[in-house]
From TrEMBL:
The modification N6-(pyridoxal phosphate)lysine is found at K185. The keyword Cell membrane does not apply. One of its GO terms (biological process) is polysaccharide biosynthetic process. It holds the Pfam family DegT_DnrJ_EryC1. Belongs to the DegT/DnrJ/EryC1 family. This is 3-amino-5-hydroxybenzoic acid synthase family. It comes from Candidatus Termititenax persephonae. GO terms for molecular function: pyridoxal phosphate binding; transaminase activity. Keywords: Pyridoxal phosphate. The active site is at K185 (proton acceptor).
Length: 361
């Protein structure tokens, strides 16, 4: 049996260092917003190429608080890709705004910049490019649209730690960028965690207050904040793993290259271009008979996942909330996509085995 993911095995190389760090923090007795969080914020901002980083409790809060830091008028329209993970859309709703869906580019699965302009109205305030599966969106085009229409850009980089376009990483393009450190992400903690990067000192200050009850000075609350803090233990673990993030991404690229070279043409593979450094948060293929393929692989002992089986505008929770627009491209992706095993814990032999089985389908 070939597992889709094994987080214990993935974290095993870091375990001894995590244990030392845990003992250090436990003995120090300072557990919330201390040195580890500050150091991680500095190191992660530097890694991304951003001026500031603010740690928060998870990726959803990173998105929601980024929107709140912008202080847009209530019910502003925010452009999001139609095939994103639901978190992006929930963040817009939680911040009191209106998500407006834009269809993806069927080749990259990312927001199609050519379809953005038609969705911009007088109420539009921001574009949220989601770097889905670990590949950056067409950021130069999105930046020029934002400039032309005076919109803010909030990147959802929850799947794109270390991903780059022409050498410029996720987190260094938008006005604000939200990251998640959920355990399965390329930079994953041993629990929940998130962060926002920005070059704007005012946004960074607002985020620091928002995550901590709206307070910059203890017991004085200038804003209606929340409790959304990255804790010291997770920050300590993330500092350790961050040192290996490039190695993790390189390993995933090496495994992806095997799929790219081995898989026959009946499987639609990720589009590659030299200017994009894809970090393969997941490796997906598309096939018209996706469900039969998934079952076949399961029978052969290979576990797979679907990212994602249901389009956001078809989710029960969003019925009556999202405008009922046709999103045929997003639906085509949801209907045909299949995620193959590919993680830091997999070997080249594992991937070659999957390829061998796939060739017999
Ligand atoms: C994981 C993810 C999030 C949410 O992160 P959490 O830490 O689980 O809240 C947001 N957007 C995308 C695209 C994600 O993949």
């Amino acid at each position: 049996m070939l597992e889709y993911e094994n987080l214990a095995r993935l974290n095993a190389p870091f375990l001894a260092q995590y244990q030392d760090k845990f003992a250090e923090i436990a003995q120090k007795g300072w557990y919330i917003l201390g040195n580890e969080v500050s150091l991680f914020e500095r190191e992660f901002a530097d890694y991304c190429g951003a001026r500031y980083c603010v740690g928060v409790a998870n990726g959803l809060d990173a998105l929601t608080l980024s929107l709140r830091a912008c202080a847009f008028p209530p019910q502003s329209e925010i452009l999001v890709p139609a095939n994103t993970y639901i978190a992006t859309i929930l963040a817009v709703l939680q911040a009191g705004h209106i998500p407006v869906l834009v269809e993806p580019d069927i080749r990259t699965y990312n927001l199609d910049d050519k379809l953005v302009e038609a969705k911009i109205t007088a109420k539009t305030k921001a574009i949220m490019p989601v770097h889905l599966y670990g590949r950056l969106c067409a950021m130069p085009e999105i930046l020029s649209l934002a400039q032309k229409y005076q919109l803010k850009i909030i990147e959802d980089a929850a799947q794109a730690h270390g991903a780059a376009l022409n050498g410029r990483r996720a987190g260094a393009w938008g006005d604000l960028t939200a990251f998640s450190f959920y355990p399965t992400k390329n930079l994953g903690a041993l629990g929940d965690g998130g962060a926002v990067t920005t070059d704007n000192a005012e946004y960074a200050e607002r985020l620091k207050a928002l995550r901590n009850y709206g307070s910059s000075q203890k017991y004085y609350n200038a804003m209606l904040g929340v409790n959304s803090r990255l804790d010291e233990v997770q920050a300590g673990f993330l500092r350790i793993k961050l040192k290996s993030l490039d190695k993790i991404n390189a390993h995933k690229n090496k495994l992806a290259a095997i799929y790219q070279a081995e898989l026959p043409g009946q499987f639609i593979k990720p589009w590659v271009a030299p200017e994009y450094y894809h970090v393969y948060h997941i490796y997906n293929i598309r096939h018209p008979e996706r469900d039969r393929l998934k079952k076949y692989l399961a029978q052969q002992g290979i576990k797979t996942e679907i990212h994602y089986p249901v389009a956001p505008n078809k989710q029960q929770a969003l019925r009556g909330i999202l405008a009922q627009l046709a999103t045929p491209l997003a639906e085509e992706i949801h209907r045909t996509t299949l995620t193959l095993p590919l993680s830091y814990a997999h070997t080249e032999t594992d991937i070659l085995h999957v390829c061998k089985i796939l060739k017999k389908f």
